[in-house]
Specification:
2 domains, alpha/beta, Nucleotidyltransferase, domain 5, 5-stranded mixed beta sheet, 13% strand
Length: 262
């Protein structure tokens, strides 16, 4: 709904805000709401304020939050690990949501979807599109409701993909996709100022194709993501993470005849 979209936009800009502050922001913006309704909607959307405290890191079993699997491990081949996330794009008359899946080792965008809402089915749709390239051993996501709910968890389990979730408030845990958001927003979305959904979908598709196949990547020694994704292994010297951050190299236990295997 439009109200859910408003809530999510405020939460993205101010993840430390709880339902009371978000209610106040919406009222200042001219949206008449009841704080109990905002509290209920935030619970349904899986949104919780990020704040320090003794219970901040506790996981709620019913939310299906899984451990973060990338710490202390190493990824050196395509399709070892994919990362998924959502960002919003403001159009003149509404907000739309971009879902994307990125291959961790190569930075190749394996799948994406531009949608009118941020519901979990769009995440599953993005995953299905990505399967033409193969199946990862692990898929990492944040703890948003789209990626802790039954629909997403079931889709990964059906493919025997191991599930990994970021720590609360740790966007660095999903640094690959966060850097892609910065790239696409500053090199395309903010410059183009898309006016319609159709225009945005076409432009974003063109940019992602350029990003995958033509754009040199400094962290990859100016190779292109496709150059590395369509090889069997990423050279160690091209594998870089922020100081103090490491990642993972598991063997692929399950393969499906969808796209190439690893």
């Amino acid at each position: 709904t439009d109200l859910c979209n408003h809530i999510y936009e405020v939460y993205l800009e101010h993840p430390c805000y709880g339902y009371r502050k978000i209610t106040a922001v919406l009222k200042h913006d001219g949206i008449v709401v009841n704080r109990k309704r905002i509290q209920r909607l935030m619970q349904e959307m899986g949104l919780r304020a990020i704040y320090p405290g003794p219970r901040a890191s506790l996981r709620n079993r019913k939310d299906s939050v899984y451990p973060y699997l990338l710490r202390g491990l190493k990824i050196t081949r395509p399709n070892h690990v994919w990362a998924v996330d959502i960002t919003y794009i403001r159009l003149p008359t509404r907000r739309v949501y971009l879902f994307a899946l990125i291959d961790w080792a190569s930075r190749f965008i394996v799948g994406w979807t531009l949608a009118n809402s941020m519901t979990a089915d769009h995440g599953v749709d993005t995953l299905q599109k990505a399967l033409i390239h193969g199946i990862p051993k692990i898929c990492n996501a944040d703890q948003g409701g789209q990626f802790t709910g039954v629909e997403w968890i079931y889709a990964l389990q059906e493919l025997s993909i191991q599930i990994s979730h970021d720590g609360v408030g740790r966007c660095i845990d999903n640094v690959r996709i966060e850097r892609f958001w910065r790239t696409i927003k500053y090199e395309d979305i903010h410059l183009k100022q898309y006016q319609t959904m159709k225009e945005a979908r076409t432009g974003i598709g063109n940019f992602i194709n350029h990003y995958n196949h033509k754009r040199p990547h400094q962290a990859l020694n100016y190779a292109r993501p496709a150059d590395l994704y369509f090889t069997k292994e990423v050279p160690d010297q091209l594998f870089r993470l922020p100081t103090g951050f490491t990642n993972l190299s598991p063997s692929l236990a399950f393969r499906k005849a969808a796209g190439r295997s690893v």
